[in-house]
Amino acid sequence: NRRVKDYITSIRTGKDGKIKISLSTRKEMRSKILKANGKIRKYTKNKLSFPNDDALRKSVYLAITEIEKK
Fold it and tell me: At 70, is the pLDDT very low, low, confident or very high (cuts 50, 70, 90)?
């Protein structure tokens, strides 16, 4: 049984400042990932910018960890 974070292939900030998450998905995981995406946005929307991509990755990882606890 894989977790959402197992499907993430890359996390970066786009030129427009938005978070870009690339996923490797199978069809049956798509709905779970889309739900998780909304929850990740909820956790990261308070942070207007990240100093670097590593800070962004850490923030998303922590958000996913919190989501999986629930």
Answer: low
Which residue stretches of 1-70 are H helix? 30-44, 53-69
Classify residue 57 by burial, with Cβ atoms within 10 Å: 0-12, 13-18, 19+: middle
Structure tokens at 28: 């049956």
The answer to whether 58 and 29 have CB atoms below 8 angstroms apart is no
State the average pLDDT over residues 48-54: 81
Q: Within 13 Å of residue 40, how many CA atoms lie on the same side as its CB?
A: 23
Amino acid at 65: T
* Identity of the residue numbered 53: D
Beta-bridge mates of residue 22: 10
Strands 8-13 and 19-23: antiparallel
d(CA 53, CA 13): 7
